[in-house]
Design goal:
This protein is mainly alpha-helical and 408 residues long. Bound molecules: aspartic acid. The site of aspartic acid has 16 residues, from helix 17 and helix 18.
């Protein structure tokens, strides 16, 4: 007899409890509760990360091997990149429009933030430097990349290996079977780890809410409101609309299937840590073919970040308004472009977007130290933008699958 409610319900229940008790504990002194929540939450993330690297490697190799067999490799590349770029562009335009309309940075006294800005030391990274270091990070000794969990480099090596495997034909049949079995094994492990998801998600949210600096949130409320509002517009309206236009799937069907990964993304603020869950949702709940999901989802988790792109653009405009600089259309176009590159280059870990934002600010001559102003509320905003990042990957996999069917 089944006594426990479904995993989805358990995750939602514990997430709500985590937020509620975190709110109760906020400002108080609860070292044991915080210690336990931290331990539980980080263990859950550790378990996901433990499976991450072998899973990404096997899923891409197997995905490519199957795609090549169906002669669809070129289309998948093209559709995937086109979808990622278009959806990130739309997200950035929404962020810029909202910031221009609501002007969250006007009226706040800059003097208030000077202390924070002086303490902050930014590492300057110009666009060419960023581009060069991004390129160098793609090609790395695979054993080093695997051991260090450098996902983008693992993705690249897996892409090459997948192609070589197929070109080698029957000679590599044994290896292909090995990777297929490796993938099935990893997915089984993900299933086990997901049983811990309710506790892990609840603990992470408890800790986040209990430790949040609410005073600063009050000061930056208008900016946070603009970011949250426009991220929601993208996640609740634009992405579902794109999904419906391409696939005729409704938002409720999508959210029901994607729930596990969206809640995990919200709680972990990490697209990479969520990747095993995203892959599971895509293949098991949303019925994306493993060869499509195996390619689109891992790539998306590293380069497709709608929420981050939107945030970086909106934050650049906010800081410009704060320091009294009026960015003209040309400069806003530069923000648009650099925000996209910065989002693509940001690894899927908590607050990564914050680091790559230095580049966006510098591209239009804004002080990089100004990101110190956003640091106190960054972890809170990171929850939602990571959720939309992951949602974009799932929608992307469904759209690419549909476009491929249209061609078949
Ligand atoms: N935390 C985000 C992610 O993992 C990246 C960011 O900081 O924007 O997708």
């Amino acid at each position: 007899m089944k006594i426990l409610p479904s995993l989805n319900i358990q995750i939602l229940l514990f997430a709500t409890l985590g937020v509620f008790f975190g709110w109760l504990a906020h400002g108080g002194d609860h070292p044991t509760a915080l210690y336990s929540a931290n331990l539980l939450g980080t263990l859950f993330v550790d378990l996901l990360k433990m499976i991450l690297v072998p899973l990404v490697f096997c899923s891409i190799v197997v995905g490519i091997a199957n795609l090549r067999q169906h002669q669809q490799m070129h289309e998948v590349w093209r559709y995937t990149l086109l979808f990622f770029i278009c959806s990130m562009l739309v997200a950035i335009v929404i962020g810029l429009t909202a910031s221009n309309l609501f002007k969250p940075g006007t009226g706040l006294p800059l003097a208030m933030f000077e202390g924070a800005m002086q303490q902050f030391e930014s590492k300057s990274l110009s666009l060419p430097e960023f581009f060069a270091s991004f390129l160098h990070s793609l090609f790395v000794n695979p054993f080093k990349a695997l051991a260090e969990g450098n996902i983008l480099a693992v993705v690249v090596f897996a892409l090459f290996s997948g192609i070589a495997l197929v070109m080698g034909g029957a000679a590599f049949d044994g290896l292909r079977t090995l990777f297929e079995q490796g993938l099935a094994l990893c997915m089984r492990l993900v299933g086990w780890v997901m049983r811990l998801a309710p506790l892990g998600v609840g603990a992470l949210l408890f800790k986040l809410v209990a430790q949040q600096d609410l005073a600063m949130l009050g000061v930056l409320a208008k900016f946070a409101g603009v970011v949250v509002g426009s991220t929601l517009v993208h996640g609740v309206m634009v992405l579902p609309l794109l999904l419906w236009l391409f696939t005729r799937h409704g938002p409720l069907w999508f959210w029901r299937g994607a729930r596990e990964s969206l809640v995990t993304a919200f709680a972990t603020s990490s697209s990479s840590a969520t990747l095993p869950v995203t892959l599971r949702c895509a293949t098991q709940h949303l019925h994306v073919k493993p060869e499509v999901a195996g390619f689109v989802i891992p790539l998306g988790a590293t380069i497709n970040m709608d929420g981050t792109a939107l945030y970086e653009a909106a934050a650049a405009l906010f800081i410009a308004q704060l320091v009294g600089v009026d960015l003209n259309i040309g400069q806003q176009l530069v923000v648009c472009l650099t925000a996209m590159i910065a989002a693509m280059g940001a690894p899927g870990i908590p607050s990564a977007g914050m680091v790559t934002m230095v580049m966006v600010l510098q591209s239009v001559g804004l002080p990089a130290e100004a990101i110190a102003i956003l640091l106190p509320i960054d972890r809170l905003l990171d929850t939602l933008r990571t959720t939309v990042n992951v949602e974009g990957d799932l929608v992307g996999s469904l759209v690419v699958q549909r476009l491929l069917q249209g061609k078949a």
